[in-house]
Amino acid sequence: MAGPLSRAELSDALLRLEKRYWAHHPFHLRLHEGGCSPADLRRWVANRWYYQKCLPQKNAAIIAACPLPEVRRVWVDRIVFHDGANPGEGGMEQWLSLAEAVGLSRAEVLDERHVLPGVRFAVDGYLHFCRTKPWIESVAAACTELFSPGHMTDRVNAWRERYDWIRPEGFAYFDRRIPAAREDSALTLRLVLDHCVTADQQEAAIRALNFKCDVLWAVLDAVDYAGAS
Ligand SMILES: O=C(O)c1cc(C(=O)O)c2c(n1)C(=O)C(=O)c1cc(C(=O)O)[nH]c1-2
Q1: What is the mean pLDDT of residues 99-113?
Q2: How far apart are the C-alpha atoms of 96 and 89, rounded to whole Å?
Q3: Is residue 2 a part of any domain in this protein?
Q4: Which value does ipTM take for this structure?
Q5: Is 73 left (phi over 0), alpha (psi -120 to 50) or beta?
Q6: Residues 31-87 pLDDT 10s
Q7: Is-above-0.90 flag for pTM?
Q8: 27 Cβ partners below 8 Å, 6+ apart?
């Protein structure tokens, strides 16, 4: 059996999975090219809400499963980022502002009436993964954020240039998320490199990141298909 990878080899193996990232999904390509209708944008935002809503819960699951105080201490910031330190603050609240900026009401996002079955299954599957797998595999799954800053920047630029009907208050989520994603993903990768030292652990980390790419891809498959029918 092959021995463990070096840190550089493991890092390369994870980064190579960028080719499976949802930045390359046909729906995101169309979104960036300006080819989405207001209905497409609203469907994307309302469905993506279901993913946003899961993020604090999956981060809490990681903390619950992790025996290391030094990891829990830093990971808890990710819950506060989304939930806010006080009511009316944080990423979820900013996502609801984005929803309003594209013409959705808060009520129709919060009651999840637009959430598609495929999105629900994919996101619930991700939450189940984080509740049942070793904490470091769920951390490895968060490595998709290594790929997100450039993608989110392109998205906001495309919105500014090609979707002038979106009210600019809607951009606040991404203005805050892009620098946070850079910081968070550097820490995420370091944790994976520090804690995945055997060949089995490293394979599990690569599998976890592949799984997360599948989750995100499945979300967009559902959003894309609903627009075609
Ligand atoms: O807009 C995006 O394309 C995008 C992608 C991802 C990602 O790659 O997982 C995240 C986010 N946004 C995001 O906003 C976010 O808070 C986030 C947390 C995580 C994670 O795995 O812990 N991914 C992402």
Answers
A1: 97
A2: 11
A3: no
A4: 0.93
A5: alpha
A6: 999 999 999 999 999 999 999 999 999 999 999 999 999 999 999 999 999 999 999
A7: yes
A8: 36, 40, 44, 220, 223, 224, 227
Structure tokens at 66: 């992790």
Pocket test for ligand 1, best of 18, 41, 53, 55 (most atoms within 8 A of CB): 55
Which two structure tokens, joined as six digits, stand for 198? 């055997």
Q: Which residues contact 125 (CB under 8 A, 6 or more apart)?
A: 215
d(CA 71, CA 77): 11
Nearest CA to ligand 1 atom 6: 145
CATH (domain of 78): 1.20.910.10
Atom 17 (ligand 1) nearest CA? 145
- In the chain, % of residues over pLDDT 70: 99
Structure tokens given for 42: 């609203």
Give the total number of structural domains in the chain: 1
